[in-house]
Amino acid sequence: MLALDCARDPITALTRRYRGGARRWLAGAALLGTALLTQAAPPIFVLNSQDADISIIDPVTFAVLRRLPTGKEPHHLYLAPDEKTLIVASATGNTLSFIDAADGKLLRTVRDIADPYHLRFSPDMKWFVTAANRLNHVDIYRWHGAGAEQPFTLVKRIEAPKTPSHLNIDSKSSVVYASLQDSDELLAIDLATQVPRWKIKVGKMPADIYLTADDRTLLVGLTGDRFVEAWDVSGAQPRLIKRIETGAGAHAFRARGDKRHVFVSNRVANTISLIDTQTLAVVAEYPAPGGPDCMEMMPDNRTLMVSSRWARKLSFIDIEKKQVVRQVPVGRSPHGVWTLDHAPRL
Description:
Layout: H1 2-8, H2 10-18, H3 21-40, E1 44-48, E2 53-57, E3 64-69, E4 74-79, E5 85-90, E6 95-100, E7 106-111, E8 118-121, E9 127-132, E10 137-143, E11 152-159, E12 164-169, E13 175-180, E14 185-190, E15 195-201, E16 206-211, E17 217-222, E18 227-232, E19 239-245, E20 250-255, E21 261-266, E22 271-276, E23 281-287, E24 292-297, E25 303-308, E26 313-318, E27 323-329, E28 334-339
Antiparallel strand pairs: 1-2, 1-28, 2-3, 4-5, 5-6, 6-7, 8-9, 9-10, 10-11, 12-13, 13-14, 14-15, 16-17, 17-18, 18-19, 20-21, 21-22, 22-23, 24-25, 25-26, 26-27
Helix pairs in contact: 1-2
C-alpha cells in the first residue's frame, strides 16, 4: 500500500508513514531553497571611497553582507569583457581589484596602475583606458584578458591637464572622450593612433560625459554649475548645441534603458533630472538627498539606486512615485554603484 501511495503521491505517503517528519523536512527544504535563491542573486556593489572598501549588499533583503577591502580611494568600477569580472579602480592605491560579479569574491589584485580614477573598455574589447585624475594623464592599455598573467599592456600615456575626470568611448571604438575638470575642457583622443584629435573649452568643472547611441551628441555634466552641455561631436570639430538647466552640481549620468532618456544627478541640488536626448529637455525630476552621485537602475526598470555621497547611504528611488523608498547605510563617501542584474544601459 505504501508503494502504491508513493507512486501516486510520495509526499502524502511519506507523511502518513512518518507522521510529521515529512512536513518538517518540507519546511526545512523551503527555507533552504529561499536561502539559496537569495545567495544566487548577484549582489549590489557600493564603493566607499574614504573607507577603501566595498559594501556588498543583498538585493533581496537589502542587508549589507560584508565589506570587501580594496586599495585606497575606490571611485569607479566597470565590467570586464568576459562579463563575469568586475574591475574596481582604486585611485591613490594604484590598484585594480578583480571581483566575481556574481558573488562578490575577490579574484585578484593588479598593482602598479597609475592613479586609475575612472576607467572604460572600448566596445570592441581591445582597449582599456584610465583617467589619472591626480596625475593629469590618460592611459591607453591593450587588453589581454582577465585571466592573463599581465591583463594590460600600456600602449600610450597622454598628458591631459588639468584633472582628467570621466571617460566615454564611441560605439566604433575609434575615439575616447575625457573631461578635464579643473581646466574646464573636453579632450578627444583617437584610439587607433593614440593622438589627441581636439581639445575645447566647456563650462565650469566638467565631470561625467554621456554619448548618445548614434555617437552624435555628447552630454557633459557641469558640476561647477547647474547645466548639462550638449555637444555635436559628429564632425571634425565639436559644436555646442544647447545648455540644459538641470540643477546645481550636475554630475553623473545613467541611461534610462529606453534608448532615449538619461538620468543626471545634481549633487548640490539634491535632485536627479531625466533628460530626453531627442529634444534635449528635462522631462522629469526626482528627489535625491545627501549629495547624489553615481546611479544604477534595478531590473524592474522602476527602482533607481544612487550613492548619497555626503550621507553615507545608498538611496533607492521609485521613479514612478518620484520618492525615496529606502536607504541602506554604507561607508564614507560612497561613490560607484553597480550590480550585474541591472536594467539596460541604452
